Protein backbone atom coordinates (compact mmCIF):
# COMPACT_ATOMS: atom_id res chain seq x y z
CA UNK A 1 0.00 0.00 0.00
CA UNK A 2 1.19 3.48 -0.88
CA UNK A 3 -0.05 6.89 0.28
CA UNK A 4 -1.17 9.67 -2.04
CA UNK A 5 -1.94 13.18 -0.79
CA UNK A 6 -4.17 15.34 -2.98
CA UNK A 7 -3.73 19.05 -2.27
CA UNK A 8 -6.51 21.40 -3.39
CA UNK A 9 -7.46 25.04 -2.93
CA UNK A 10 -11.22 24.84 -2.27
CA UNK A 11 -13.93 22.26 -1.67
CA UNK A 12 -15.12 20.94 -5.08
CA UNK A 13 -11.70 21.30 -6.76
CA UNK A 14 -11.02 17.66 -5.96
CA UNK A 15 -14.26 16.64 -7.68
CA UNK A 16 -13.41 18.46 -10.88
CA UNK A 17 -9.73 17.53 -11.34
CA UNK A 18 -8.69 14.42 -9.40
CA UNK A 19 -11.76 12.57 -8.11
CA UNK A 20 -11.43 9.63 -10.49
CA UNK A 21 -7.78 9.10 -9.61
CA UNK A 22 -8.56 9.31 -5.91
CA UNK A 23 -11.35 6.74 -6.20
CA UNK A 24 -9.13 4.47 -8.29
CA UNK A 25 -6.26 4.51 -5.81
CA UNK A 26 -8.61 3.95 -2.87
CA UNK A 27 -10.19 0.99 -4.69
CA UNK A 28 -6.70 -0.44 -5.26
CA UNK A 29 -6.09 -0.37 -1.51
CA UNK A 30 -3.85 2.70 -1.34
CA UNK A 31 -4.27 5.35 1.36
CA UNK A 32 -5.78 8.55 -0.06
CA UNK A 33 -5.53 11.80 1.91
CA UNK A 34 -7.28 15.01 0.87
CA UNK A 35 -5.78 18.33 2.00
CA UNK A 36 -7.69 21.55 1.28
CA UNK A 37 -6.28 25.02 1.86
CA UNK A 38 -9.54 26.96 2.34
CA UNK A 39 -13.22 26.42 3.06
CA UNK A 40 -14.24 28.22 -0.12
CA UNK A 41 -16.28 30.73 1.85
CA UNK A 42 -15.96 33.45 -0.80
CA UNK A 43 -16.97 31.35 -3.77
CA UNK A 44 -20.04 31.88 -5.92
CA UNK A 45 -23.12 30.28 -4.37
CA UNK A 46 -26.72 31.03 -3.49
CA UNK A 47 -25.73 31.22 0.17
CA UNK A 48 -24.20 34.48 1.50
CA UNK A 49 -20.41 34.51 1.47
CA UNK A 50 -18.72 33.98 4.81
CA UNK A 51 -18.83 31.51 7.67
CA UNK A 52 -22.17 29.94 6.75
CA UNK A 53 -21.02 29.16 3.22
CA UNK A 54 -17.67 27.92 4.53
CA UNK A 55 -19.35 25.51 6.95
CA UNK A 56 -21.71 24.25 4.26
CA UNK A 57 -18.92 23.71 1.76
CA UNK A 58 -16.82 21.92 4.38
CA UNK A 59 -19.68 19.51 5.01
CA UNK A 60 -19.93 18.98 1.26
CA UNK A 61 -16.21 18.26 1.17
CA UNK A 62 -16.53 15.49 3.73
CA UNK A 63 -19.39 13.91 1.76
CA UNK A 64 -17.27 14.06 -1.40
CA UNK A 65 -14.28 12.52 0.39
CA UNK A 66 -16.44 9.67 1.68
CA UNK A 67 -17.71 8.96 -1.84
CA UNK A 68 -14.12 8.74 -3.08
CA UNK A 69 -12.85 6.49 -0.30
CA UNK A 70 -10.52 9.01 1.34
CA UNK A 71 -8.93 7.85 4.56
CA UNK A 72 -8.35 11.36 5.91
CA UNK A 73 -9.33 14.97 5.23
CA UNK A 74 -7.18 17.87 6.41
CA UNK A 75 -8.22 21.54 6.22
CA UNK A 76 -5.35 23.98 6.52
CA UNK A 77 -7.72 26.77 7.61
CA UNK A 78 -6.67 29.60 5.29
CA UNK A 79 -9.16 32.14 4.03
CA UNK A 80 -10.58 31.89 0.53
CA UNK A 81 -8.83 34.65 -1.43
CA UNK A 82 -11.74 35.12 -3.83
CA UNK A 83 -11.74 36.51 -7.34
CA UNK A 84 -12.25 39.97 -8.80
CA UNK A 85 -15.01 40.63 -11.33
CA UNK A 86 -12.55 40.13 -14.21
CA UNK A 87 -11.31 36.84 -12.77
CA UNK A 88 -8.09 38.20 -11.25
CA UNK A 89 -7.00 38.77 -7.67
CA UNK A 90 -9.71 40.27 -5.46
CA UNK A 91 -9.11 43.78 -4.11
CA UNK A 92 -10.55 42.90 -0.70
CA UNK A 93 -9.39 39.72 0.97
CA UNK A 94 -9.62 38.27 4.49
CA UNK A 95 -6.65 38.78 6.79
CA UNK A 96 -5.72 35.11 6.51
CA UNK A 97 -6.21 34.82 2.74
CA UNK A 98 -4.32 31.85 1.31
CA UNK A 99 -2.75 33.96 -1.44
CA UNK A 100 -1.20 36.22 1.25
CA UNK A 101 0.16 33.36 3.36
CA UNK A 102 3.89 33.20 3.89
CA UNK A 103 5.11 30.60 1.41
CA UNK A 104 7.52 28.89 3.80
CA UNK A 105 5.01 28.78 6.66
CA UNK A 106 2.25 27.34 4.46
CA UNK A 107 4.65 24.83 2.93
CA UNK A 108 5.76 23.68 6.37
CA UNK A 109 2.12 23.07 7.36
CA UNK A 110 1.54 20.91 4.30
CA UNK A 111 4.93 19.24 4.69
CA UNK A 112 3.98 18.17 8.21
CA UNK A 113 1.05 16.22 6.74
CA UNK A 114 3.28 14.71 4.05
CA UNK A 115 5.81 13.62 6.67
CA UNK A 116 3.18 12.28 9.06
CA UNK A 117 1.64 10.25 6.23
CA UNK A 118 5.02 9.23 4.75
CA UNK A 119 3.45 10.25 1.46
CA UNK A 120 4.70 8.60 -1.71
CA UNK A 121 2.96 11.15 -3.91
CA UNK A 122 1.39 14.59 -3.71
CA UNK A 123 -0.73 16.30 -6.34
CA UNK A 124 -0.76 20.06 -6.86
CA UNK A 125 -1.72 22.25 -9.85
CA UNK A 126 0.29 23.46 -12.83
CA UNK A 127 2.14 26.80 -12.51
CA UNK A 128 -0.79 28.75 -14.00
CA UNK A 129 -3.17 27.26 -11.46
CA UNK A 130 -5.20 25.75 -14.29
CA UNK A 131 -7.42 28.68 -15.18
CA UNK A 132 -5.50 31.23 -13.12
CA UNK A 133 -7.33 31.43 -9.79
CA UNK A 134 -4.86 33.02 -7.33
CA UNK A 135 -5.45 30.29 -4.74
CA UNK A 136 -4.71 27.64 -7.37
CA UNK A 137 -1.44 29.33 -8.27
CA UNK A 138 -0.59 29.35 -4.57
CA UNK A 139 -1.34 25.62 -4.35
CA UNK A 140 1.35 25.07 -6.97
CA UNK A 141 3.92 27.16 -5.09
CA UNK A 142 3.12 25.82 -1.63
CA UNK A 143 2.79 22.21 -2.78
CA UNK A 144 6.07 22.15 -4.66
CA UNK A 145 7.96 23.65 -1.72
CA UNK A 146 6.26 21.29 0.76
CA UNK A 147 7.32 18.29 -1.31
CA UNK A 148 10.91 19.54 -1.21
CA UNK A 149 10.78 19.91 2.57
CA UNK A 150 9.16 16.52 3.15
CA UNK A 151 11.14 14.67 0.50
CA UNK A 152 7.97 13.41 -1.20
CA UNK A 153 9.30 11.59 -4.27
CA UNK A 154 6.44 12.05 -6.76
CA UNK A 155 4.83 15.44 -7.44
CA UNK A 156 2.05 15.45 -10.01
CA UNK A 157 0.44 18.63 -11.33
CA UNK A 158 -3.27 18.04 -11.86
CA UNK A 159 -4.30 19.71 -15.09
CA UNK A 160 -6.39 19.38 -18.27
CA UNK A 161 -5.18 18.63 -21.78
CA UNK A 162 -5.40 22.11 -23.30
CA UNK A 163 -5.43 20.76 -26.86
CA UNK A 164 -8.54 18.68 -26.19
CA UNK A 165 -10.11 21.48 -24.18
CA UNK A 166 -9.68 23.98 -27.01
CA UNK A 167 -11.24 21.60 -29.51
CA UNK A 168 -14.30 21.31 -27.32
CA UNK A 169 -14.48 25.03 -26.61
CA UNK A 170 -14.18 25.94 -30.29
CA UNK A 171 -16.94 23.50 -31.14
CA UNK A 172 -19.15 24.90 -28.40
CA UNK A 173 -18.45 28.46 -29.56
CA UNK A 174 -20.15 27.68 -32.87
CA UNK A 175 -23.40 27.31 -30.99
CA UNK A 176 -22.67 29.76 -28.16
CA UNK A 177 -20.82 32.75 -29.68
CA UNK A 178 -20.48 34.42 -26.27
CA UNK A 179 -17.80 31.88 -25.29
CA UNK A 180 -14.39 33.56 -25.16
CA UNK A 181 -12.12 31.01 -26.82
CA UNK A 182 -9.03 33.14 -26.23
CA UNK A 183 -9.42 32.87 -22.47
CA UNK A 184 -8.70 29.14 -22.76
CA UNK A 185 -5.61 29.44 -24.94
CA UNK A 186 -3.26 29.74 -21.98
CA UNK A 187 -5.24 27.64 -19.51
CA UNK A 188 -3.98 24.35 -18.08
CA UNK A 189 -1.23 22.43 -19.96
CA UNK A 190 -0.51 21.62 -23.63
CA UNK A 191 -0.95 17.99 -24.60
CA UNK A 192 2.73 17.26 -25.20
CA UNK A 193 3.61 18.46 -21.67
CA UNK A 194 1.29 15.95 -20.01
CA UNK A 195 3.06 12.86 -18.68
CA UNK A 196 0.17 10.95 -17.08
CA UNK A 197 -3.17 10.15 -18.69
CA UNK A 198 -5.18 8.21 -16.13
CA UNK A 199 -8.12 6.13 -17.33
CA UNK A 200 -10.73 6.49 -14.58
CA UNK A 201 -13.83 5.33 -16.48
CA UNK A 202 -14.40 2.50 -14.01
CA UNK A 203 -14.61 5.10 -11.25
CA UNK A 204 -16.82 7.77 -12.83
CA UNK A 205 -19.74 6.77 -10.60
CA UNK A 206 -17.68 7.81 -7.58
CA UNK A 207 -16.50 10.91 -9.42
CA UNK A 208 -20.09 11.88 -10.20
CA UNK A 209 -21.06 11.32 -6.55
CA UNK A 210 -18.17 13.60 -5.54
CA UNK A 211 -19.47 16.33 -7.85
CA UNK A 212 -23.04 15.85 -6.61
CA UNK A 213 -21.86 16.36 -3.03
CA UNK A 214 -20.97 19.97 -3.84
CA UNK A 215 -24.55 21.17 -4.29
CA UNK A 216 -23.73 24.81 -3.49
CA UNK A 217 -21.47 24.97 -6.54
CA UNK A 218 -24.09 23.90 -9.08
CA UNK A 219 -25.63 27.38 -9.15
CA UNK A 220 -24.61 30.87 -8.11
CA UNK A 221 -23.64 34.15 -9.72
CA UNK A 222 -25.54 34.49 -12.99
CA UNK A 223 -27.21 31.07 -12.76
CA UNK A 224 -26.10 27.53 -13.48
CA UNK A 225 -22.37 26.98 -13.17
CA UNK A 226 -19.95 24.55 -14.77
CA UNK A 227 -20.44 21.85 -12.16
CA UNK A 228 -24.22 22.06 -12.53
CA UNK A 229 -23.95 21.66 -16.30
CA UNK A 230 -21.60 18.68 -15.85
CA UNK A 231 -24.12 16.92 -13.64
CA UNK A 232 -26.73 17.04 -16.41
CA UNK A 233 -24.60 14.95 -18.78
CA UNK A 234 -26.13 11.45 -19.18
CA UNK A 235 -24.16 8.64 -17.56
CA UNK A 236 -22.77 7.01 -20.76
CA UNK A 237 -21.56 10.36 -22.09
CA UNK A 238 -20.27 11.30 -18.62
CA UNK A 239 -18.00 8.22 -18.61
CA UNK A 240 -16.54 9.31 -21.93
CA UNK A 241 -16.15 13.03 -21.15
CA UNK A 242 -14.77 12.57 -17.63
CA UNK A 243 -13.09 9.20 -18.03
CA UNK A 244 -9.55 10.60 -18.24
CA UNK A 245 -7.57 12.73 -15.77
CA UNK A 246 -4.31 14.42 -16.66
CA UNK A 247 -1.11 15.20 -14.75
CA UNK A 248 2.33 16.64 -15.41
CA UNK A 249 5.40 15.31 -13.63
CA UNK A 250 8.33 17.69 -14.08
CA UNK A 251 11.69 16.29 -15.13
CA UNK A 252 10.31 13.59 -17.41
CA UNK A 253 10.91 13.76 -21.17
CA UNK A 254 8.34 15.77 -23.06
CA UNK A 255 5.86 13.39 -24.66
CA UNK A 256 6.04 10.79 -21.85
CA UNK A 257 2.76 8.85 -21.63
CA UNK A 258 2.17 7.07 -18.32
CA UNK A 259 -1.10 5.49 -17.20
CA UNK A 260 -0.91 5.27 -13.41
CA UNK A 261 0.03 7.89 -10.80
CA UNK A 262 2.83 5.70 -9.40
CA UNK A 263 4.26 4.76 -12.81
CA UNK A 264 7.79 5.72 -13.77
CA UNK A 265 9.15 5.80 -17.35
From TrEMBL:
The name this protein goes by in its record: PIG-L family deacetylase
Protein's organism: Microbispora oryzae
Lineage top rank: taxon: Bacteria
GO MF terms held by the record: hydrolase activity, acting on carbon-nitrogen (but not peptide) bonds, in linear amides
GO biological process, alphabetically ordered: glycoside metabolic process
Key words, A-Z: Zinc
Amino acid sequence: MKTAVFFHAHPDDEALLTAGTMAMLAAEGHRVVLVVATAGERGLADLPKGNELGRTRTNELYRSAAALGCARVVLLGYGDSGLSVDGGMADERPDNAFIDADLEEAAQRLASVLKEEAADLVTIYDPAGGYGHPDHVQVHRVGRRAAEIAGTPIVLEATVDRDLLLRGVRLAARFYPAIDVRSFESAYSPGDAITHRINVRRHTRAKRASMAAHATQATGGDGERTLGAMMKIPAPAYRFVFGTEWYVRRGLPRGTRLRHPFDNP
